[in-house]
């Protein structure tokens, strides 16, 4: 399955609405060497860079949450809760 980065970004924002709620920037790109998607979150000079395996990205597009990624997003976004 070929994945468009914009579609993956939109799906992640839909699955994890706290990203937009807290004004966190999200970017994804595919790393051919790792055969995985790189997910970057940033806000206020702080950043998180992690990866999402190809199969997990495909499952994400089917509406299946990746627990590992969800935990990382939750921890990062929690720093900015008001």
Overall description:
With 82 residues, the protein is of the alpha+beta class. The protein has one domain. Helix content is 43%, strand content 28%. The chain is built from four helices and three strands, in the order ααβββαα. The protein has a three-stranded antiparallel β-sheet. A hairpin with a 2-residue loop joins strand 2 and strand 3. The radius of gyration is 12 Å and the shape is globular. It starts with a helix and ends with a helix. The model has no long low-confidence stretch (mean pLDDT 92).
Percent helix, as a range, is 40-55%
Structural class: alpha+beta
The whole-angstrom Rg is 12 Å
| Biggest β-sheet: strands ordered side by side in the sheet | 1-2-3
What is the overall shape?
globular
Query: How many helices?
Result: 4
Q: What's the total number of strands?
A: 3
The pLDDT mean sits at 92
Total domain modules? 1
The termini sit apart by 39 Å
Unreliable residue stretches: none
Could you tell me the strand content as a percent range? Answer: 25-35%
Order of helices and strands: HHEEEHH
Q: In this structure, how is the largest beta sheet organized?
A: 3 strands, antiparallel
Topology:
Layout: H1 5-15, H2 18-21, E1 25-31, E2 36-43, E3 46-53, H3 54-61, H4 67-78
Antiparallel strand pairs: 1-2, 2-3
